[in-house]
């Protein structure tokens, strides 16, 4: 199938492009705004924690809502509210009266709406396309976010010399508005069938039961939970480590993330040829072992370009494992339960991220940052042994 001749795919593809660009701008600019305000690794880690909290606190509830309401309505109204919040963020920073708590609250709300729209988009895709196409579709969507990750930080790093943060936030607002307008034109889908008298708690329980009973999905969900904890130890302090500890510039930080994002292109492109030769379970298990080795090498990296290369390897691994996981989730989950299963699995996978971000930030305030990489490597290595015990490598 030629996806690019399909109108519905082009619309979803365009939405993903705008979402990827806006996400890249947000994750690059907001840490710098916080750094200028506080010069604190803990404050920057706390901001990342606020962005992940909606998944932990509201994941199951959002899943129930997505399974009860029409997915098109979720995309349209969720996108509109997110657009309004992005304008509030722009005005808050432009007024030069921004406080840390303003950013925390807006970050939480934007992440809540972003997660809701993402869940609805994930659930509507199998309604619009055959399930056998999910792996290919996820590979194409992942490639979008990877390319955007390359373009965004590299351009932002260079243009920071001439432009202030407002210019980038204006682009962020435009992307949010464009995504909402496209959502209004996506092909209409049926509202999932739902028992009228069933309570929210019963809905949540039904989603949990489906996830736990699906061994193909539950095993990688637990390993991703552990992997996310390992990543959260690092991501909250990386900007602080590169700029404050290693003494690099903001432009070099942008180049580092550009190098890192290149790995995602290889990950998206390698998925199909590897899938033709190996089982998805074999690919997944091998990638986890490689990730543990890469994290160990982080301990010895003391330059922005070497960190960029190692981050590129991690990005490649992350893209490939995410493609496999999302495809398995969409293929093996009944569509009327997909919102709840996605919400529950996402909540579980990100349950420990706020804790990891807080620990990473506190660690960086007192002890040397490189030892965090060793702790992360050990956590990921544990995943490899869990997957071997569950015989996940046998999954097709």
TrEMBL record:
<feature type="transmembrane region" description="Helical">
    <location>
        <begin position="141"/>
        <end position="163"/>
    </location>
</feature>
<keyword id="KW-0812">Transmembrane</keyword>
<feature type="transmembrane region" description="Helical">
    <location>
        <begin position="369"/>
        <end position="387"/>
    </location>
</feature>
<dbReference type="InterPro" id="IPR020846">
    <property type="entry name" value="MFS_dom"/>
</dbReference>
<dbReference type="Pfam" id="PF07690">
    <property type="entry name" value="MFS_1"/>
</dbReference>
<feature type="transmembrane region" description="Helical">
    <location>
        <begin position="101"/>
        <end position="120"/>
    </location>
</feature>
<protein>
    <recommendedName>
        <fullName>Major facilitator superfamily (MFS) profile domain-containing protein</fullName>
    </recommendedName>
</protein>
<feature type="transmembrane region" description="Helical">
    <location>
        <begin position="307"/>
        <end position="328"/>
    </location>
</feature>
<feature type="transmembrane region" description="Helical">
    <location>
        <begin position="255"/>
        <end position="271"/>
    </location>
</feature>
<dbReference type="InterPro" id="IPR036259">
    <property type="entry name" value="MFS_trans_sf"/>
</dbReference>
<feature type="transmembrane region" description="Helical">
    <location>
        <begin position="12"/>
        <end position="35"/>
    </location>
</feature>
<dbReference type="GO" id="GO:0005886">
    <property type="term" value="C:plasma membrane"/>
</dbReference>
<dbReference type="InterPro" id="IPR011701">
    <property type="entry name" value="MFS"/>
</dbReference>
<keyword id="KW-1133">Transmembrane helix</keyword>
<feature type="transmembrane region" description="Helical">
    <location>
        <begin position="283"/>
        <end position="301"/>
    </location>
</feature>
<keyword id="KW-0813">Transport</keyword>
<feature type="transmembrane region" description="Helical">
    <location>
        <begin position="73"/>
        <end position="95"/>
    </location>
</feature>
<dbReference type="GO" id="GO:0022857">
    <property type="term" value="F:transmembrane transporter activity"/>
</dbReference>
<feature type="domain" description="Major facilitator superfamily (MFS) profile">
    <location>
        <begin position="8"/>
        <end position="391"/>
    </location>
</feature>
<feature type="transmembrane region" description="Helical">
    <location>
        <begin position="47"/>
        <end position="66"/>
    </location>
</feature>
<keyword id="KW-0472">Membrane</keyword>
<feature type="transmembrane region" description="Helical">
    <location>
        <begin position="169"/>
        <end position="186"/>
    </location>
</feature>
<feature type="transmembrane region" description="Helical">
    <location>
        <begin position="222"/>
        <end position="243"/>
    </location>
</feature>
<keyword id="KW-1003">Cell membrane</keyword>
<feature type="transmembrane region" description="Helical">
    <location>
        <begin position="340"/>
        <end position="363"/>
    </location>
</feature>
